[in-house]
């Protein structure tokens, strides 16, 4: 069985457009944008609609729930790696999670044995504080 891993928690670049999103992550809230013109739910936070180009955008608190759309289990062995310096294998899951609200998010699946992850598996958000004004949105099995 692969070892549990501790992934790095790099601080994101916070812009005027993403400031509200990142501030909410520190309160364990997943905020999404929605176009008020065509009702498209938007991921990654931005102030225009990628479907209709409207700038009439609002935000709402998402459920934080979804399912795994696609994933890969990554294995990394490198003594000079950013993730581990003890020479042991790092195993982590990189996935697209389809949120219950619609958009797909590129993220990590954490707090589980990577070998048990499955397409369609229900997941929920967890927030990993960067210590620099934001928390990264990751997912764990529901």
- What would you say the CATH architecture is? Beta Barrel
Radius of gyration: 16 Å
Largest sheet entry: 5 strands, antiparallel
CATH class: Mainly Beta
Structural class: mainly beta
- Write down the secondary-structure element order: HEEEEEEEE
Shape descriptor reads globular
User: What is the CATH fold-level name?
Assistant: OB fold (Dihydrolipoamide Acetyltransferase, E2P)
- Unreliable residue stretches: none
State the oligomer.
Answer: single chain
Number of helices: 1
The number of distinct structural domains comes to 1
Strand content: 35-45%
Quick structural overview:
The protein has one helix and eight strands.
Description:
The protein has one helix at residues 19-25; strands at residues 31-35, 41-42, 57-61, 65-76, 90-99, 104-109, 122-129, 135-141. By secondary structure, it is mainly beta. It has a single domain (19-141), classed as OB fold (Dihydrolipoamide Acetyltransferase, E2P) (Beta Barrel). A hairpin with a 5-residue loop joins strand 1 (31-35) and strand 2 (41-42). The longest helix is centred in the N-terminal third of the chain and has 7 residues, at 19-25. It is globular. The model has no long low-confidence stretch (mean pLDDT 90).
Explain the layout of strands and helices.
Blueprint lengths: L18 H7 L5 E5 L5 E2 L14 E5 L3 E12 L13 E10 L4 E6 L12 E8 L5 E7 L1
Key attributes of the depicted protein:
five-stranded antiparallel β-sheet; 39% strand; globular; OB fold (Dihydrolipoamide Acetyltransferase, E2P); mainly beta; 142 residues; 1 helix; three-stranded antiparallel β-sheet
């Amino acid at each position: 069985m692969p070892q549990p891993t501790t992934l790095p928690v790099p601080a994101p670049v916070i812009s005027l457009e993403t400031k509200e999103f990142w501030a909410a992550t520190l309160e364990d809230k997943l905020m999404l944008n929605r176009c008020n013109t065509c009702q498209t739910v938007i991921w990654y936070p931005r102030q225009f609609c990628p479907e209709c180009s409207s700038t009439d955008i609002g935000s709402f608190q998402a459920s934080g729930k979804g399912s795994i759309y696609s994933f890969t289990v990554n294995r990394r062995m490198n003594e000079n790696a950013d993730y581990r310096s003890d020479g042991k294998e790092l195993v982590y899951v990189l996935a697209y999670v389809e949120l219950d609200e619609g958009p797909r998010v590129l993220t990590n699946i954490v707090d589980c044995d990577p070998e048990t992850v499955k397409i369609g598996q229900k997941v929920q958000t967890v927030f990993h504080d960067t210590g620099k004004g934001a928390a990264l949105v990751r997912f764990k099995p529901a």
